[in-house]
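Intended use. Records like the one below are meant for learning the mapping from a protein sequence to its folded structure. Do not use them to infer anything beyond what is encoded.
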Amino acid sequence: MRPKLSKNLLRTKTLEARVNAIEHEMIKLKAQDAGLSVAEFTRRSVLLKPLPRRLSKITLATYRELVRIGNNINQLTRATNTAMLRGVRPPADPEQLEQLRKLLQQIGLQLSQIETEMTDDDEMDDLDEEWDEE
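Structure written out for the chain above:
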């Protein structure tokens, strides 16, 4: 069961603002791009709270590929450990698998740093367009 909010935190008041159809659509799209409801987007915008940063298509695709590679390494590691327990020649060198796992972690960290360093949305849009063309 969800804990009850104090009376001060409970949202009981509504705000109304008139916007035209174009403004309304723009607000909806911005909220969607931020991964928020229109209400949460409006609250954060009005109250000057930071909006979450969305990942570019390139970054998302790269993360997905890293996850696939990581899954393959995990499967190889499991098969290697099982083979070693049974006294059979392992399919891969355990030390190399560990090196690969560490490299994947480093790539993921570097990717997240690159993503946060790119603050110009125009640059991100250009990269996304280039990615889509390929």
